[in-house]
């Protein structure tokens, strides 16, 4: 089963993807994570994308399509979760072609709906464990007082450089200009399902599971 999690920054795509990885043996393909890895390890591509990401702009279609193409060559286990990809119509077309080449198909596109005010507070309070990626929030799930991640015991709390109000404004603008047309695109293809991403994590999980099991 191959699915796309579609939604603005802060909608909870990463959190839900992690759950699907654990429970359904799926593989999370987050282009944001891949780009951050390239940036942190100082590759040529990482250097090219660093400023673009810090501003909250989108990196080129060519770069992200190349990253996804590479990953589709590897193990597919219980299927792929595309998280943060596609973000443009050109990327969506490229994904359809890549899947067809592999004899694969897209089983569902899950749109996670969250209003803008919630996104700002979710993102500006967000941090993750540097070791396992567990997601925390200053108000709703604070980093443990003993300094150790509840999931893995790791001691490095990380915040993303682009999780600040200025970058977020630009990321939201990019989302509405370039990514939100994908909602209509997948609706027209009969592949779109929507969930309310504002509720408790467990409720959102259940809603997504119901779509995938249907
Ligand atoms: P994310 O972790 O998905 O929020 O992505 C972080 C940043 O990486 C975005 O703000 C973009 O600069 C870049 N990025 C991630 N995925 C894509 C994509 N599919 N297309 C273009 N840029 C992307």
From TrEMBL:
Annotated Gene3D superfamilies: P-loop containing nucleotide triphosphate hydrolases (3.40.50.300)
Molecular function per GO: AMP kinase activity
Domain Adenylate kinase active site lid span(s) in chain numbering: 126-159
Amino-acid positions noted as binding ATP in the UniProt annotation, renumbered to this chain: 10-15, 126, 135-136, 199
Pathway linked to the protein: Purine metabolism; AMP biosynthesis via salvage pathway; AMP from ADP: step 1/1
Primary subcellular site in the record, as a coarse category: cytoplasm
Keyword Cytoplasm: yes
Keyword Cytoplasm attributed: yes
Annotated catalysed reactions: AMP + ATP = 2 ADP
Sequence positions that bind AMP: 31, 36, 57-59, 84-87, 91, 160, 171
Annotated Zn(2+) binding sites: 129, 132, 149, 152
Pfam families: ADK (PF00406), ADK_lid (PF05191)
Chain positions covered by the region annotation NMP: 30-59
Keywords recorded for this protein, A-Z: ATP-binding, Cytoplasm, Kinase, Metal-binding, Nucleotide biosynthesis, Nucleotide-binding, Transferase, Zinc
EC number(s) stated in the UniProt entry for this protein: 2.7.4.3
Localization: Cytoplasm
HAMAP family to which the protein is assigned, alphabetical: Adenylate_kinase_Adk (MF_00235)
Record note on domains: Consists of three domains, a large central CORE domain and two small peripheral domains, NMPbind and LID, which undergo movements during catalysis. The LID domain closes over the site of phosphoryl transfer upon ATP binding. Assembling and dissambling the active center during each catalytic cycle provides an effective means to prevent ATP hydrolysis. Some bacteria have evolved a zinc-coordinating structure that stabilizes the LID domain.
Subunit structure: Monomer.
Annotated family: Belongs to the adenylate kinase family.
Function: Catalyzes the reversible transfer of the terminal phosphate group between ATP and AMP. Plays an important role in cellular energy homeostasis and in adenine nucleotide metabolism.
Protein name, per record: Adenylate kinase
Organism: Thalassovita aquimarina
